[in-house]
Amino acid sequence: MVTPVRRPRPRGWVDLDYAREMVRSRDLDEERETLSVGASSPGVRSGGARYLWVAVVAVLALVLSGLGGYRWAQSRSSGPAATHGAATLVRLPGGQPSGAGLAFGSVWVTTWDGSVVRIDPVARTILATVPVGPHPLAARAGFDSVWVTNSGDGTVTRIDPTDDSVMDTIRVGPAPYQLGAAGGGMWVATQSAAVEIDPTSDRVVRRTRYPHPAAKETPDTAGVGLAADESGVWISTAVGTVLRLRPDTGRVVDTIRVLPSSHTSPGAVTIQGRLVWVSNYATDAGAGPGVGEPVYGRSVGVVAIDSSTDRVVQRVPSAGYPISGVLPDGRALFLVGEDYSTHDSVLIRTDWPYQVVSFVRPVGGDSFDVVPADGSLWIPSWDEHAVYVVPPTE
Question: Does CATH place domain 40-128+141-338+354-390 in 3.30.450.40?
Answer without folding.
Answer: no
